[in-house]
Write a structure and sequence with these properties.
It contains twelve helices and no strands. It is mostly helical. Helix 2 (17-32) runs parallel beside helix 6, helix 2 packs parallel to helix 12 and helix 10 packs antiparallel against helix 11. The longest helix has 28 residues, at 38-65.
């Protein structure tokens, strides 16, 4: 396999919507209020992507070390487990990617001050701590909460703050919608991987409470954005445009509910990421038009 394709696999591009979308929403809200710095937008996006890719690299490495990724996994190929990348090489790449994140983050820290410094430092720490350290979040059933908060209100407000040096209640509220959809991506992942996670001691919420719980969680997470849009549309009626997202969401939701084939769930995981982007696009258009 070509080296470029190997590292694309390791970066897991299907997960990057979770970073891109809160950056777009936070920046859109700031732009509508007359605040937009293209350089800060670019470095916010670069730093966010670097954090997510670093997290994915660390996940690839530590899940193999801990025995969570085996030859029997149902999900996409993992480069460390498959032997495409030697263990020592992936370890070095994890370090380099985290250093790159810190370098991109310096620009944001210089612009945003100590609050952004705290967020960047915490993001780097959690990129490793998601699957490693004394309390690996993904192994303790805390992954869903982490994703909901980090890729929802925190990311959305952080991007808005970098553009405006202020906070915004509506930005925080829509962050809940984005966090829900990002967590839904993880929920599908955990439903698919329940057998391997049980064997490796990875106590995800689906492992703890079962597949039925996981599917109920998924449905609720996909419905939360529509509730958020309805609430915000009281002041901004054109945000009702984002409810069009329910059309594809209902189709994907139904398939996840009635499908237990882990290989088919791979496709619905990717489609959930696309749902996040669809909702984000419709929300941003509705916001700007209102």
């Amino acid at each position: 396999m070509h080296a470029v394709k190997i590292w694309l696999l390791a970066a897991r591009p299907k997960t990057l919507f979770a970073v891109v979308c809160p950056v777009l929403v936070g920046t859109t809200i700031a732009f509508s209020l007359g605040h937009f710095n293209p350089w800060i937008f670019a470095f916010t996006l670069l730093t966010g992507l670097a954090i997510q890719i670093s997290t994915n690299f660390c996940n690839d490495y530590f899940d193999f070390i801990k025995g969570a990724d085996t030859k029997n996994r149902k999900g996409p190929l993992r480069v460390t487990q498959s032997g495409l990348v030697p263990v020592h090489t992936m370890k070095k790449v994890c370090v380099v990617s985290l250093l790159a994140t810190a370098l991109f983050g310096i620009v944001l820290i210089w612009h945003g001050g100590w609050i952004i410094a705290l967020l960047v430092a915490l993001s780097i720490l959690l990129a490793v701590g998601y699957t490693a350290g004394p309390v690996p979040l993904a192994y303790k059933g805390l992954g869903d909460l982490f994703v909901f908060v980090a890729f929802g209100p925190v990311a959305c407000l952080g991007c808005y703050y970098l553009q405006t040096a202020n906070i915004n209640l509506e930005c925080n509220i829509v962050g809940l919608a984005l966090g829900s959809l990002s967590t839904a991506i993880l929920a599908v992942n955990n439903i698919r991987d329940i057998e391997e996670d049980q064997k490796s001691g990875k106590k995800t919420l689906v492992v703890r409470f079962g597949i039925v719980f996981g599917k109920m969680e998924y449905v609720i997470l996909l419905l939360i954005p529509s509730i958020i849009s309805l609430l915000l549309s009281v002041q901004r009626p054109l945000l009702l445009l984002s409810l069009l997202y329910l059309i594809p969401a209902t189709i994907v939701m139904t398939n996840v509910i009635y499908n237990n084939n882990p290989y088919k769930l791979n496709g619905y995981l990717a489609k959930t990421g696309i749902l996040l982007f669809i909702y984000t696009t419709l929300f941003c258009v509705g916001w700007l038009l209102s």
